[in-house]
Amino acid sequence: MKRVKIIASYDGSHFSGYQVQPDARTVQGELQKALARMHKADSWNATGSGRTDTGVHSLGQTIHFDTSLNLPENRWPMALNALLPDDIIILEASYVGDDFHARYDTVGKEYIYRVETSKVKNVFKRNYCFHVREELDLEKMQKAASHYLGTHDFTSFSSPRTAVVDKVRTIYDVSIDRSGEELTFRYVGSGFLYQMVRVLTGTLIEIGKDRMNAEEIPEILEAKDRALAGPTIPGNGLYLSKVVYSEEELSKLLRR
Amino acid sequence: MKRVKIIASYDGSHFSGYQVQPDARTVQGELQKALARMHKADSWNATGSGRTDTGVHSLGQTIHFDTSLNLPENRWPMALNALLPDDIIILEASYVGDDFHARYDTVGKEYIYRVETSKVKNVFKRNYCFHVREELDLEKMQKAASHYLGTHDFTSFSSPRTAVVDKVRTIYDVSIDRSGEELTFRYVGSGFLYQMVRVLTGTLIEIGKDRMNAEEIPEILEAKDRALAGPTIPGNGLYLSKVVYSEEELSKLLRR
């Protein structure tokens, strides 16, 4: 058996998230079905770097699985894409050591959150951006975002519905860029808690609307109280963008 | 009764085209249902500038209907959008004279066709661009497109499945722009025959791939034989972009 690492892009609009569930269309479910067919088996296991929720997209979800097939690395994407539905695309594949683990070996992740600010919603962006009618104050949001940097307990900025006990994470980089009516929020961190990027961005948007102040962020972090942060905004604007497995890959992300 | 003219944008991905059909989800069907609800009637008629096929999108489909309601112009989009599914958005509404007709009064239309040229398909563009794996020769396509300009019988460049007898149309402007991996083909004309933009663009792509020559276009037009032109490419890259009702609006389009 050889272990394969693949990078998958998917449009989350019509998936009940990444993780396999009975009677629901999931990314892992579709991938495992394709792998089972390739291996002429009843089922086949694939392990992702982590879950993504309903409606959340991927530009770089990373997954591993073991195989008995002897396919050259560069044939794997084509072979899988031929069996996968058209809202999942395998971008890359490589053979890795038996000890590589897509979930446990992550060193960092990059997430992107896209927001459209316009009076009239663009019908083509409805599944791909969170729509905000008001203009947002970019400078205020950037000031607030700088308070996220570093190592903090992010209890206030994540969903309480989780079994995870240690809520300390490190954010290495946050940036917000505007291009026309679109804002792109980019986060690089050691890892992210359940719904964390959606609460971090939801809170920045409240600040951009002048309903909260940038200076409240340190107090909210300190309080460890989810009720104090902004709303959990929808999954449709969220993209798992990159998963890195070495300090070298991480520093490349941070140099961008 | 007053006549209302509206401009509708829609994502054609999940519609069986514009025109109402029994047992199929259509743009006109959804709009007429919303109008019937607003007017507390069993049905309500709406007339579009023309059909769009399955999967074809709109940035500016223009539609008229009559109303007994006394709503200010600027309330119409909001009122309709509240009742319409989220893949149709009404952008504008205005009261027009009783003699205005969205179909018969058109002076010109603009269509856009988007093509993605890349080795690996972008999963987010699968419903919005036609994907071509090869690079296309922009200069050759532009040279070929210039032969489309002017008044011609477009029998060779449209589907024979139509009741329309007069196949003479005028193309006022064609342009092709590249932005990264995306090509945008733009056509302004007096009117377009069934599947005409898809055949015009499909033929340009054959020329961009060096499978046909720009110099063949005049002969193909002359021959009035559909078999000589390139393939009818899919509807997913096609957008009805603008419908104009006066020479003034048309010249504004051409000055862009």
Would you tell me which CATH topology of the largest domain in chain A applies? Answer: Alpha-Beta Plaits
Q: Mind summarizing the main beta sheet of chain A?
A: 10 strands, mixed
Distance between the termini of chain A: 37 Å
Multimeric status of the protein: homodimer
Count of individual domains of chain A: 2
Radius of gyration of chain A, in angstroms, nearest whole number: 19 Å
Active site (chains A, B): 53
InterPro entries (chains A, B): PsdUridine_synth_cat_dom_sf, PsdUridine_synth_TruA, PsdUridine_synth_TruA_a/b_dom, PsdUridine_synth_TruA_C, TruA/RsuA/RluB/E/F_N
Protein name (chains A, B): tRNA pseudouridine synthase A
EC number (chains A, B): 5.4.99.12
Index terms:
PsdUridine_synth_TruA_C (chains A, B), 256 residues, 10-stranded mixed sheet, 2 domains, Alpha-Beta Plaits, alpha+beta, 6 helices, homodimer
What would your notes on this structure say?
- Two copies of one chain form a homodimer.
- Chain A contains six helices and ten strands; from the N terminus they run E-H-E-E-H-E-E-E-H-E-E-E-H-H-E-H.
- Chain A has helices at residues 27-38, 76-83, 138-146, 196-208, 216-223, 247-255; strands spanning 2-10, 47-48, 57-67, 88-96, 108-117, 130-132, 150-153, 168-179, 182-189, 238-244.
- In chain A, helix 3 (138-146) packs across helix 4 (196-208).
- In chain A, strands 1, 2, 3, 4, 5, 6, 7, 8, 9 and 10 form a ten-stranded mixed β-sheet that branches.
- The first copy, chain A, folds into two domains: 2-96, 2-Layer Sandwich (Alpha-Beta Plaits); 108-255, Pseudouridine synthase I, catalytic domain, C-terminal subdomain (Alpha-Beta Plaits, 2-Layer Sandwich), CATH 3.30.70.660.
- Chain A has 256 residues and is of the alpha+beta class.
- At the A-B interface, strand 4 of A face strand 4 of B.
